[in-house]
TrEMBL record:
Organism annotation: Dactylosporangium sucinum
Keyword Oxidoreductase attached: yes
Highest rank taxon of the organism: Bacteria
PANTHER family: GLYCINE OXIDASE, SARCOSINE DEHYDROGENASE-RELATED
Cellular component GO terms held in the UniProt record: cytoplasm
GO molecular function: oxidoreductase activity
Protein name: D-amino-acid dehydrogenase
Record keywords: Oxidoreductase
Domain called FAD dependent oxidoreductase: residue spans: 21-410
Keyword Protease: no
UniProt xrefs under Gene3D superfamilies: D-Amino Acid Oxidase, subunit A, domain 2, FAD/NAD(P)-binding domain
Length: 428
């Protein structure tokens, strides 16, 4: 046997697969992991510091778009950098005075924003993207009642034809990396016929096919119900402050002082990952990329999501209201909602939408995308025995939550990650 410390805590499980597993965090990723562990007969306890879906999994845009799920650091994102600091109306916001951890994140993020790094990261996304919708079908077949919806139309909308060149090039790159994505440039007139909610200000669009969406609050609630219905325990108000790996299990310590032992633990705490990560050997920082959303009434609901890439705003029909979401604000997750960001989103989309009352807003929300500087999730084993990490999905934790949960369940049972998760090694 090697005398080197073992990065992979797998051998412990080859003798005895875990019977009881704690998942920390009841968002899309944690709940999906819990559900797929239950598929394998594992008893799960989900600890959630607040309530089910309290994090980013609640107010997001709900897009299940494997055709668009790509790593965030890319050369075009850098163009926002200067504007972000100079203009409060920019869709990306950076505080003028960044603290040390934000600076560290930004330096590394910029270093990863090259075309070569993006291609490499994209190649890692493809196997996950390809299985992402199928994983939702497995949840549906297994009794998760909230459904996903095929997007009748999915349009990325622009004021001018030349504005869409960037996304067309990116989609072609995504396809060149092996991702099956069908898309078509369409003139503004055609876009307005397809979606009468669009105004004459939409001068060009790209239609993307084969994508889906969901109602995030409903879905996350129904996933939690399914976990409970299968005998899982969800401890709301269970704020985990420490993990104590030891022989034969891991103690999960809550703020109340209570400690309970489990055979293994999966940390799926979204943008707050850093708080528990220090003793797990994970060096990648997870930075909150805060986004905002709200819902408004529409006289005529669009037949599918609308995307305004220049403004970085996403609109999704959720029952009788349109959810409008956007912004990338690098601030602390607990900072209060900044109403100026909501106004910036409203002003950005107002010229493009008709019959939508952007002033009758409900459910104004801010939440934190868990962003890593290389744009890759963290999913796999950590340096602490029997402790696993699942998160860091940035812009795409809803679409990729279930497939991550599926692969994490395999990882926990075997004690080592399957090949699809290799690029997401939390110890990279
Ligand atoms: C505006 C916006 C739009 C978005 N649109 C999309 C989209 O269209 N499609 C898509 O795929 N993704 C989208 N995303 C990203 C997506 O929302 C996230 O990637 C995803 O929700 C992350 O899921 P998660 O389970 O990792 O984290 P979260 O949902 O944040 O869940 C983590 C949970 O852990 C809990 N927690 C944290 N610390 C502790 C602790 N110590 N003890 C116990 N519990 C703890 C938190 O309370 C939280 O409930 C969007 C995000 C935003 C902000």
């Amino acid at each position: 046997m090697s005398s080197q410390p073992d990065r992979h805590n797998g051998p412990a499980f080859l003798e005895k697969a875990p019977n009881t597993v704690a998942v920390i965090g009841a968002g899309m990723v944690g709940l999906s992991t819990a559900w797929f562990l239950q598929e394998a007969g594992v008893h799960v306890t989900v600890y959630e510091r607040s309530r089910v879906g309290a994090g980013a999994s609640w107010g997001n845009a709900g897009w299940l778009t494997p055709g668009l799920a790509a790593p965030l650091p890319e050369p075009a994102v850098l163009r926002y950098g200067l504007r972000a600091v100079l203009s409060a109306r920019s869709p990306v916001y950076l505080p003028l005075r960044a603290d040390r951890s934000l600076l560290r994140f930004l330096v590394s993020f910029v270093a990863h924003s090259t075309a070569r790094q993006w291609r490499r990261a994209m190649a890692a996304y493809v196997p996950l993207n390809e299985r992402s919708l199928e994983a939702f079908d497995v949840l549906a077949a297994g009794g998760v009642s909230a459904t996903t919806t095929e997007a009748g139309t999915f349009l990325a909308c622009y004021a001018r034809e030349r504005d869409r060149r960037g996304l067309l090039a990116e989609l072609a790159q995504i396809r060149a990396t092996g991702q099956d994505v069908r898309f078509h440039p369409v003139p503004g007139l055609r876009a307005r016929v397809l979606e009468p909610v669009l105004t004459e200000r939409v001068g060009a669009a790209i239609q993307i096919y084969g994508q889906r969406y969901l109602n995030p609050p409903r879905f996350v609630r129904s996933l939690a119900e399914a976990v409970r219905a299968r005998g899982g325990r969800i401890v709301e108000g269970g704020d985990v402050t420490g993990l104590r790996p030891g022989p034969g299990g891991v103690g999960v310590v809550c703020r109340s002082g209570q400690e309970e032992r489990h055979d293994a633990v999966v940390v799926a705490t979204g943008a707050l990952f850093g708080e528990l990560a220090t003793r797990l050997g994970v060096r990648q920082p997870v930075q909150a990329g805060r986004g905002y959303s709200f819902s408004v009434p529409a006289e005529r609901m669009p037949g599918g999501p609308l995307y305004f890439p220049t403004q970085r705003v996403a609109c999704t029909p959720l029952d009788d209201r349109l959810r409008v979401a956007g912004m990338m604000e690098f601030r602390r997750p607990a900072d209060p909602l900044d109403p100026r960001r909501i106004s910036a989103i409203v002003d950005a989309v107002r010229p493009f939408l008709r019959g939508v009352d952007l002033d009758d807003r409900r459910d104004e929300w801010v939440g934190s995308r868990p962003c890593t500087p290389d744009g890759l999730p963290l999913a796999g084993v950590t340096a602490a025995p029997r402790v696993f990490a699942a998160g860091g999905h940035g812009m795409w934790g809803v679409a990729l939550g279930p497939v991550t949960g599926q692969l994490m369940a395999q990882t926990v049972l075997k004690g080592e990650a399957p090949p699809e998760l290799a690029p997401f090694d939390p110890l990279r």
